[in-house]
Design goal:
The protein has about 160 residues and is an alpha/beta fold. The protein contains seven helices and five strands. Helix content is about 45%, strand content about 15%. It has a five-stranded parallel beta sheet. The radius of gyration is 17 Å and the shape is globular.
């Protein structure tokens, strides 16, 4: 193999879709030993605890930022107020039933704002009956994880994201 072929083999292909972008981000962070930045939008303390435990058991290096309502999700993504200077998330875990601004309103807002573009979203839900509504959103929803979260469910979702 020539040196030119070696150089081409070491480069990543052009990133064109959101699944490819996420897969590229995960590979790059793993290579650099950087944590995956995850924004968890959940208002139930027990579900937060279960999700944190499940994430810890996946052994995926991560930095978790938790918000408790839909308004905080949007403020975080816009880097407003107490969220100024927070890192852009690589992934959002979004509960649909949030106070103030619910998950559906967050999705609708993200569909119209550039701030949410390119961030994959995994919906945390206790029910699959919302799937048809969510599939029509203009944001990238990559998966649905039934609550309570388990390491197997999260790893499955990460694997589907990592291998578009």
């Amino acid at each position: 193999m020539t040196s030119q072929n070696l150089a081409l083999a070491d480069t990543e292909p052009a990133v064109t879709s959101l699944p490819q972008q996420f897969a590229y981000t995960m590979r790059a962070k793993i290579k650099r030993h950087q944590p995956l930045v995850i924004l968890l939008a959940e208002d139930d303390p027990s579900d937060i605890c279960l999700t944190e435990c499940a994430l810890d058991e996946t052994y995926v290096s991560h930095q978790l930022h938790t918000v408790h309502n839909g308004s905080e999700v949007l403020q975080y993504l816009r880097c407003e107020g107490i969220f100024a200077g927070k890192p852009r998330p690589d992934l959002i875990l979004l509960d649909l039933h949030l106070p103030y601004t619910d998950g559906f309103e967050v999705l609708e807002t993200l569909a119209h704002e550039a701030g949410g573009n390119g961030i994959p979203i995994i919906i945390l839900t206790g029910s699959e009956h919302y799937r048809h509504l969510l599939d029509s959103c203009n944001v990238w929803l990559c998966d649905y994880v039934a609550k309570p979260c388990s390491p197997d469910k999260l790893l499955g979702a990460f694997a589907r994201l990592h291998s578009p």
